[in-house]
Amino acid sequence: MKRTILVLSASALLLGGCYNTGEHPIFRVPTEKTALLSLGTRQRPRLGIMPFADNRGHFELNRIGLAYIPFYPLGWSKYDRIERRYPNYFQVSASDDITRATAACFTRSGLFQSVNLANGSNSAGDADYVLSGSIENMRYSRAYFTYGVSIFAPLSWVGAAPVNASMQRLDLRLTLQDRRGRVVWTWRATERDQMHACVQGAYYCKYTYRMYGRTLVEHVNKALVSLQTFFSQNPLPQESKPQSTAVKTSAVQPVAPKAAPPPSPEQIRLKQLLDAGTISKEEFERLSKRIHEK
Fold it and tell me: What's the pTM value of the predicted model, to 2 decimals?
């Protein structure tokens, strides 16, 4: 009887553990077209996306071994960087994978004329807006159930009892800047939307690695709706036109000759005497010169 129980336990352990084997990239964008948001807008700006910053912590806690103590019901673990603990099951390069998955979602949305990824040698170029982001949290928390029966727990798992309960968190912050480098839009998932829980068993919820990718698509879809509202309320930034360095010249106006000053009373009197023949022309010129010298 004891031998039969051991054989059943070993078989159940293999059956219960086979669901989390293999290698899985966790931020592969879902292939279902319905999962990606498709929007339309009158304005279709050009978008450049900078690599997202990885601001995750380094906290690690592993108490899974407690689950194998007789009469102890469970063990648990928490990791800020899950790829360190489960490098095969959770394949992720957080900054690169999330940036590329976000770009795929933005391209699919139809909000933008073009979406270009920038890297160290390729800047945002002539983009109307530049999107940057940061990964603030990606903690993976797990509880492992043995129900106090230690190595005989697989017998419970075969009976459809939960094997694990996991909590996956994805905290993503997005920022949009215009050509002048001014921040014009920001978005961050709410505390509630960041959390996704999953109860796993031998026959259900086997693929926990897919949850992060689905959470990312949900985040980006909500960000796109917010962006659509922003674009509908704000015109596209206009390109600054360089000012012409040519000197503006105006037509040269001819200089009018200065008018002669009006004659003095003495000159008027001399002219009257000349007209009356009282003085000669020579005497008139001599006296006029004398009056002018004064």
Answer: 0.66
